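Below: protein 1.
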Amino acid sequence: MDLTNKAVLITGAKRIGAIVALELAKRGANVAVSYGRSKTEADALVADVRAAGRRAIALQADLTDPDQCAKIVAQTVEALGRLDVLIPMASVYEATPFDRLDLATWDRTINVDLRSTFLCAIAAVPHMRKQGGGRIVTFSDWLPRSGRPRYEGMLPYYVAKGGVMALTEALALELASDNILVNAVAPGPILAPPATTAEEHQKVADATPLGRWGGGDEIAKAVLAFIDSDFITGETLRVDGGRHVK
């Protein structure tokens, strides 16, 4: 897909999402980004995309609310005139010991990481059909892609991201006849959380065969590869520096 003057909606456009948004803008795309509480970061990203000569808008949304998932898709089409690419990246990533898990914790993670991906996709598909096709690039994780729940305390997250893979495959089958290609990126050690200590950072690098963290640019490359391809669908691609083989 040639991204020139195409419209992209990215949910959770902070940190890695911001890098992806800017790379798509460099390829000629107009970009809508949704945010929950990070208005300052979203506004800064919009300014950067506009500085690159593309149109951009920031949309506030609570992605646990189905109506708001549908609303940001409608707002994107209203503002940018179309919707060609959906990239649902919003994610809840928090450790909760098993004995402290409750329904609220489960729902919060499942609703953002998995359900909102489904809801945004369902809302986006009619607009893509009108244009003869589109791309949906979802986000899983290297652990469920590798079939290994390696870290304790991440039960809802692991289940949600495993569900994203299943959703990606099922959507790819359902939407193939509409020329809507659906794939997933499964990041490994890309950007360290802000509170990561130097020792923790190095420990992860040492456990990665390539010996380093990847950086957000590697995720942008994977997203662009899926958008560029006209014959890959239903795939989940690990971007983990070989972490799964060690």
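Below: protein 2.
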Amino acid sequence: MLVDSHCHLDYPEFEGRMDQVRVDMAANGVTHALCISTSLEGFPRVHALAERYANFYATAGVHPDHPESSTLRMEELVELGARPKVVGIGETGLDYYRLEGDLEWQRERFRTHIRAARRLKKPLVIHSRAAAQDTLRIMREEGAGEVGGVLHCFTETLDFARAAIATGFHISFSGIVTFKNAGALREVARVLPLERLLVETDSPYLAPVPHRGKTNHPALVRHVAEEVARLRGVTFEALAQATSSNFFSLFSISP
């Protein structure tokens, strides 16, 4: 059993392809997928996938790269997050890599997501890029540890990972962990507590080796799990069982 803990199956790359996506998942032992919301406009598509397929779930949130949604109201997010099969709040967080200038709106929107998650008692899905210190500071100031969650597609330092775990969060690894230039990240994947690890694709992006450069999809999470298992010196089956159990426990889903 494997779970893709973070994918974007509502994106155009998957239009008309969902039957094949699901066949490929089954062939690779991928039993569940969490479909991630990145905008209010796209939420209905994400939620529709979760409602249509029993083994798909959804989140509600606005990606930090979307400045046009900077005035997000907490009440609106709470309403979406309370819908059936919505198991988490996000993708939220901070991204100082792609955007420049005064990003206070981004920090305020991150706070809004954390407050909504606490209201709903649902975990957070956090994106953090080139913003580690502010991400941790806001998580602590807003009490994100109350609900926990996951730092998805992790690419930061071991110190950051350990601080996030101490705050009550999980760390999720994507196809990046299979890249040749990801030595530091592979070390993070090797030493973190197994009970805090998840695996993901971030489909349609970041396809793992040996599919790098192609459209990613949930079945390929198997390559991520195989690499993390190799790094840790455990069997693929043990890694798959642990990360799946971690996912179901974090998002309060019955397998």
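The first strand starts at residue 2 and ends at 7.
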